[in-house]
Write a structure and sequence with these properties.
Strand content: 25-35%
Order of helices and strands: EHEEHEHHEHE
Distance between the termini: 27 Å
Radius of gyration: 17 Å
Helix content: 25-40%
Oligomer: single chain
Bound molecules: guanosine-5'-diphosphate, magnesium ion
Number of helices: 5
Largest sheet: 6 strands, mixed
Length: about 180
């Protein structure tokens, strides 16, 4: 009988970052397989799930797509970080301000996860909007890579719209990681 029971472990993944960086689009893309035609601004937190089969085991990713509004955040923030398995820190590669903004999100995570060793990922979104002729107005991969190393995070760039999912140089093999059900 036990072999008929499908084991299913749930992993809670928190999606954090400044407003407008694409947190909702990324979670939608990951869970529904498409770039949403339009998104509403997130209020508080939205939940989406994605099931994965890894080595015959069913894994459930539970994505917590958060929003930054102060009045929601203050009362919710402890719930966000409770029993979390991974945190994705998202910025927009075309917006250095959203990269600078990560410092306070990382601090929030540190304050609310004392004693837990949570795997953290630095994710540069909107890589499809990269414009080589305006490189100085954007967040370079080298800059993000060295920041991620200093913070002890994994780093990759991606796009919720077109997903080449470029990985940080020297970190992973990179290449296409298409959406899979
Ligand atoms: P959130 O506030 O972080 O949840 O950001 P949203 O997911 O609501 O996205 C904000 C805006 O950025 C929307 O207009 C999206 O269409 C756009 N957007 C999100 N991800 C991408 C991306 O990878 N590429 C492009 N070109 N636009 C994106
Ligand atoms: Mg949102």
């Amino acid at each position: 009988v036990s072999s008929m029971l499908t084991r299913c472990r749930t992993f809670k993944v928190l999606v954090i970052g400044d407003s407008g960086v694409g947190k909702t689009c990324l979670t939608h893309r990951l869970c529904a397989g498409e770039f949403p035609s339009r998104v509403e601004a997130t209020i508080g937190v939205d939940f989406r799930e994605r099931q994965l089969d890894i080595n015959g085991e069913r894994i459930k990713l539970q994505l917590w797509d958060t929003a930054g509004q102060e009045r929601f955040r203050k009362s919710m923030v402890q719930h966000y970080y409770r029993n979390v398995h991974a945190v994705l820190f998202i910025y927009d590669v075309t917006s250095p301000a959203t990269f600078s903004g990560l410092v306070s999100w990382i601090e929030e995570c540190r304050q609310n996860s004392l004693g837990q060793q949570i795997p953290r990922f630095l994710v540069g979104n909107k890589s499809d909007l990269r414009d080589p002729s305006r490189a100085e107005a954007q967040v370079s991969q080298e800059w993000a890579m060295s920041f991620s190393k200093a913070q002890g995070m994994m780093f990759f760039e991606t796009s919720a719209k077109n997903s080449p999912n470029k990985c940080g140089k020297g970190r992973q093999s990179g290449g296409e990681v298409p959406y899979q059900q």
